[in-house]
Amino acid sequence: MSAKTSICLIAHNAYGAIAGGSSGFIGGVERQTSLMAKWLAQRGHQVSLLTWDEGQDDDLVIDGVRVIKICRARAGLPGLRFFHPRWTGLVAAMRQADAEVYYQNCGEEVTGQAALWCRRHDRRFIYSVAFDPDCDVRLPAMPNRRERILYRYGLTHADRVIVQTRKQQAMLREGFGLDSQILPMPCPGPQDEEYVKRTLPPAGRQRVLWAGRIVEQKRPDRLLDLAEACPDLAFDVVGPWYDRATNPYSYAIQERARGLANVTVHGAIPRQQMSEFYRTASCLLCTSDAEGFPNTFLEAWSFGLPLVSTFDPDNLIASRGFGRIERDTEGLGRAIRALFGSPQAWQRASVDARDYYRENHAVDVAMSRFEAVFLEQVRHLTETR
Hints:
By secondary structure, the chain is an alpha/beta fold. It has 2 domains: 6-186 and 363-384, Rossmann fold (3-Layer(aba) Sandwich); 207-360, Rossmann fold. Helices cover 44% and strands 16% of the residues. It is built from 14 helices and 14 strands. It has helices at residues 15-19, 28-42, 82-97, 109-120, 145-157, 166-176, 220-229, 248-258, 271-280, 295-302, 316-320, 329-340, 343-360, 363-384; strands spanning 6-10, 46-51, 60-62, 65-69, 101-105, 124-128, 160-163, 181-182, 207-211, 234-238, 263-267, 283-286, 307-309, 323-325. The strands form 2 sheets. It has an 8-stranded mixed beta sheet with strand order 3-4-2-1-5-6-7-8, with helices on both faces. The chain has a 6-stranded parallel beta sheet with strand order 11-10-9-12-13-14, sandwiched between helices. Helix 4 links the parallel strand 5 and strand 6 (124-128). The chain is globular. The two termini are 25 Å apart.
């Protein structure tokens, strides 16, 4: 048993993930942070998680994790809520957590706010990159100047920066002059005793799965172009939709998808039901222009599901044979047909993907590496005091 410490994870949107609900925004970052918190608590560490106030009780403990409320997401006056209650609420919650190490994933203004508090109070701060553009010195995904200033401060003043790929590591070194550590993210998946070796379903039963938020970054329009061009292929679309007022792009995609006979729109699916989609799909399709390391890739590989994708983190899919990479609609169609046309190649991709998941992203394997980083930071803190 390793040494024990106090760890605080900051993830404003993670209450739904930690509580197991289906309301609110729950993305890959939130699921991974919730998973980390519970695993660390099971290891005997004192763990707190800072989230928005979504009406939960004070002093709430879930699976050994102390959940501390920051404030309501929409509380305060427009223009002023950035300072109060959002920043003041974050400071109060960090003080209440009183941890030795603070961890935050995903580039935003909170990165700088958390780093500043840790510097002033002699605590260690770990930042984890979630998205390739957050390693770009131009910060193209952050149009707000205030957010860019705070994020740059947090990134450059973190005691440890964690990345998911060699590409992200090189971008930080070249653009910011920063060193970083590559750590594969944890992802729950079938245990060896539960896993059933996959075979490619026969023609007519093969289905293409697309899973993610219906937003422009994910380019679901490419999926629909592909479905129109390949009426003989069947597609399942899983992910939360937005109404016309909230996100006109998402609404238009939804309306278009419902008009295609070979596309089944499932909407948001509870986490416990997603495994059935991975088990029954014949490939996972990704149509994004930019990502970090999608959680859906890890989930698919845990089920031995090959990929056809426009995005390839560190050239893993192409070099390891986990599927096929193409950049446009016509190429994606060819790639799917080629994958489905060779049961032997499909089976190799399935086995290799599952093995890669077990060696790198299985929860105990990946989280043991994160735990070592947390404890290393505590040792640094002890030595400098």
